[in-house]
Every structure is written in C-alpha cells, then in structure tokens.
Amino acid sequence: MSPASRYTYLGPEGTFTEAALRTLPEAATRELVPMVSVAAALDAVRAGEAAGALVPIENSVEGGVTATLDELASGQPLMIYREVLLPIAFALLVRPGTELESVKTVTGHPVAQPQVRRWLARNLPGAHWESAASNADGARLVQEGRYDAAFAGEFAAATYGLEARVTGIHDAENAVTRFVLVGRPARPAAPTGADKTSVVFWLREDHPGALLEVLQEYASRGVNMMRIESRPTGEGIGRYCFSADCEGHLQDRRVADVLSGLKRACQQVRFLGSYPRADEVRPTLRAGTTDAEFTAAADWVTRCLDGRG
C-alpha cells in the first residue's frame, strides 16, 4: 500500500495501542505498521512514510505519556486529528506450564507498572520488575525466555504463544488510556460541538505569576482547561514548556480568543489541533462565552468606533 494508506503505531503486534487503533473504522482499510517506539511511529509520519500514527498520550492512573508529549513539542510540527479512549486491564502472560509461584522476573511498559504495583506486591512480592519498550514487547521477551512473565493485554497471549496465568489485573477500577491519531499539519476537521483543542506553550519569561497570567487567558473567556503538564525543554534546570488541552474547537470564538491571547503572552505556541472528543461530552458554556455573545460584543465595539455605541 502507498504511504497515504498506512498508519503506524507503537508496536510490536499485540500492544494496547494496536487494540485502540483497530477500534477506528478506517483501520480496516489501512496498512497497520508496528514501530519500535513512539518517536519512530511519529517520525514515519514526518517523513511522509505514513499518513498517521496512533500513540498513547495519557493514562488515568499514571498521567501523561512523556515520550509522546515531548515528541509533539519538538521537531517538525504534527497535529492531532482524533482521540481514542481504551479501558485497560492487564493479564499476567507466561510461557505454557509456568505456575504463579515460579515467577521471579516480570516486565511491561513503564506506564503499566503503577497500574499493577499493588497487585504485584500482594501476589508476587519477590518478583523483580524490568521495563520493556511496550507491553507486547515484554510478551515477546517472555516468549524468548528472558523473563518469567509480562503484564500485557490478554489478547497478546496468542500472538506470542503464551498463557494468561491471571487476567483482569488493575490497581484502579475503570483505568483508561487515551490515544491520539497524529498526522501532518492541515486544516482541522469541522467542529462537532464536543471537541478538544491542544497546544504547547513556552512562557516568555520567568517571573512571579507568569503561569497564572497565561491560565487567565483561559479563565477570562470561560474555556475549561482539561489537562496541563509541564515538560523540561532541555535548556537547563527550571526551563519548562506546558502541554495543555481545553474544551472547544479553534472555530469557537472563545477558543480562538484564548489562542490569540496565548500567542501575545507567550514566547512560543505550538497548535496541536482541534478534534472530536472521544467521550462526545459537550461543554457547559458560561454566560458571555457563546459565539453569538462574542459577535454581539464585537459589533458593539464597531458601533462605538462609529459613534453609534
């Protein structure tokens, strides 16, 4: 297939990322290519070798996936076009015949560890954990005999010739991982009324209240910020950028006004996209923040300039 029909994802086969990607209707008509890392999946898009990449960005237990946040904040710009929410429960995968009491070494993606830590302490207190590039890669390493067990999706067992010794493992009920489909920059899809807008911004200078001033760009326009995380820029201790999601679409006047304010107030702003919310929840708008009210206010200013206010 041509690059335009290809999607990459964090591999190898059998990852939760692949499971999330296969929930998209268009995945049935695409060539799905596993990559060794988030960076490799996104670089294939940057290089024109794939039309999109699905990568994890946030977990309800562990928070942001730093590899994805950092990749989206640096390098050639990319945009988010949609998101997928996938409920997460782990299985302990072992080679056939391995009993639980003989498991001495376990592996999985670093984001998985906080989600199974208490279960591991209760059931395998002596087991040694080492991280793998992905949960499915951990399953592959168990298949090769390098570890006794891996925490991965139960669906990965068949791919790697393993058995699910224990299923339904999670320390937190209703754990969910959020994935985003990323492509090269283009016009955002039309607003649906239940949308999300993502940006990365860098403060112009470090002074008391600098971040508060930026957050007020959202608050003063009644735009709900759904997530904000700081990430080091690599330029020295104390130098950070901020990755943020908010309710609404760039075509909404209140959101456009926020981004205009960020552009004026910040050293740099990177627009990461406006896209449909996976949960389809529509925002509750405060008085004075609808498009009609923004338009009416702008018309009033025009009348004032014309002496008709």
Short account of what is shown:
The chain has 309 residues and is of the alpha/beta class. The strands form three sheets. Strands 1, 2, 3, 4, 5 and 11 form a six-stranded mixed beta sheet that branches. It has a five-stranded mixed beta sheet with strand order 8-7-9-6-10. The chain folds into three domains: 1-88 and 170-186, Periplasmic binding protein-like II (D-Maltodextrin-Binding Protein, domain 2, 3-Layer(aba) Sandwich), CATH 3.40.190.10; 90-167, Periplasmic binding protein-like II (D-Maltodextrin-Binding Protein, domain 2, 3-Layer(aba) Sandwich), CATH 3.40.190.10; 187-309, 2-Layer Sandwich (Alpha-Beta Plaits), CATH 3.30.70.260.
Largest sheet: 6 strands, mixed
Instruction: Based on Cα principal axes, name the global outline.
Output: elongated
Mean pLDDT: 95
- Radius of gyration (CA) equals 22 Å
Structure description:
- The protein has helices spanning 16-21, 38-46, 66-73, 113-123, 135-143, 156-159, 210-219, 253-265, 291-305; strands at residues 6-10, 31-35, 52-59, 63-64, 79-87, 90-94, 105-108, 128-131, 149-152, 163-169, 176-183, 195-203, 225-232, 240-247, 266-276.
- Helix 7 runs antiparallel to helix 8 (253-265).
- Strands 1, 2, 3, 4, 5 and 11 form a six-stranded mixed beta sheet that branches. A five-stranded mixed beta sheet has the order 8-7-9-6-10. It has a four-stranded antiparallel beta sheet with strand order 13-14-12-15, sandwiched between helices.
- It has 309 residues and is α/β, with parallel strands linked by helices.
- The mean pLDDT is 95.
- The chain is 28% helix and 31% strand.
- It contains nine helices and 15 strands.
- The protein has three domains: 1-88 and 170-186, D-Maltodextrin-Binding Protein, domain 2 (3-Layer(aba) Sandwich); 90-167, 3-Layer(aba) Sandwich (D-Maltodextrin-Binding Protein, domain 2); 187-309, ACT domain (Alpha-Beta Plaits).
